[in-house]
Amino acid sequence: MSVVYYSSETSTKKIEKLCEKVNVGTIKKGDLVAIKLTVGGIGNTHFVKPVYVKPVVDSIELYGGKPFLTDANVICGGARETAVEHMETAVAHGFTPNTVGAPFIVADGLAGNDYVEVEINKKHFKKVRVGSVVRDVKMLIGISHFTGHGIAGFSATLKNVGMGFANKEWKHQVHSYVISDVEEEKSKIYLDRCTGCGRCVKVCPIGAITLVDNKVNIDFEKCIEFNRRRGIPCTLCSWNCGPGGALDVGMEMSEGLQEKYVEVAYGVLKLIKKAVFMNFVVDVTPGCDCHGGEGSPIIPDVGILASTDPVALEQASVDLANSQKGIEGTLLKKGFESGQDKFRALFPRTDWQVQLRYAEELGLGSREYTLEKV
């Protein structure tokens, strides 16, 4: 069984002790060490704060390592879609060399086009494209905020490493698929929600979208031809849909999404042989840190967990989260008792275990673990 180390305290000393337990001391002098985290979208207040990251940076430097904070550009807004916006957001949220002790470097370059391609030959992908910084890194330390997630059930290490390191093109690959059934896609257009804002019209690269009677209208013959010709999915209309949320065209559903980002995580860890992971099971909100409006925490703070096994870490984190008594008056409407599944209560149609089963199948770790309190 893999060992997962756990502290109910979030003090500097406890974080340093957790770093010691997961063998951060194996770093050699001069090693480049990537600290993969999320600086949080604009308006988000629950991301892992700089004060918790600083002890990790200090632990790396104690052994002569050269740490830097990193994340790849996103496709979901939140002022992190280019390196300029991303770095400005990092500074706004306190992630500066003066406060954390290490610089923030965007993993996939200015516009998300700097990547390294990794051959993996798995179910969904034969290859994946991840931020180019992983090519020269000697150790990865994943710092993840454990939260709920509408499509994945919960979001933590596997999503942070997989989705987080995917370059912008590959984030689209993870989130979407090539349209093959027009009638099925038509069922994902919710005209009653369409506000006629026209954002989808502006972003469609081939002019397949128009507004008819101030409602979205998609020429699927053009859309399908475009997707087949390029060989990759295009979901720009869905991603840029306005306030009504009328479009869900070409968007990958829960099981496929989870398996795809696990495959990207597999690619990252194929390149970076030495990796350790920490889950901050505090401020456990219903939604992830990409945007504001993620909701109030649904359980009391649990603490910090760390392991060299990402699968065991995820399983232990969700087990401890579900062992808590739910907080009433939040978006959690049932499943309040200790031992009840908080994340199936939040998202009844989402099986969060998919990512763990698939990660274990790919050999990324084991769901069996022993918990050692620090």
Describe the structure concisely for a colleague.
This protein has helices at 12-21, 50-62, 83-92, 97-100, 157-165, 168-175, 182-186, 199-203, 220-230, 236-239, 254-271, 310-322, 342-346, 353-361, and strands spanning 2-7, 32-36, 66-71, 104-106, 115-119, 127-131, 139-145, 147-149, 153-155, 209-212, 215-218, 275-281, 303-307, 369-373. The protein has 374 residues and is α/β, with parallel strands linked by helices. The protein has 2 domains: 2-174 and 253-373, 3-Layer(aba) Sandwich (Rossmann fold); 177-239, Alpha-Beta Plaits (2-Layer Sandwich), CATH 3.30.70.
Q: In words, what does this structure look like?
A:
By secondary structure, the chain is of the alpha/beta class. The protein folds into two domains: 2-174 and 253-373, Rossmann fold; 177-239, 2-Layer Sandwich (Alpha-Beta Plaits), CATH 3.30.70. It is 33% helix and 18% strand. It contains 14 helices and 14 strands. The strands form four sheets. An eight-stranded mixed β-sheet has the order 4-3-2-7-12-13-1-14, sandwiched between helices. A hairpin with a 7-residue loop joins strand 5 (115-119) and strand 6. It is globular, with a radius of gyration of 20 Å. It starts with a strand and ends with a strand. The model has no long low-confidence stretch (mean pLDDT 93).
Biggest pleated-sheet summary: 8 strands, mixed
Give the helices and strands as they follow along the chain. Answer: EHEHEHHEEEEEEHHHHEEHHHEEHHHE
How many beta strands in the DSSP annotation? 14
Multimer state: single chain
Helix content: 25-40%
Strand order of the largest sheet: 4-3-2-7-12-13-1-14
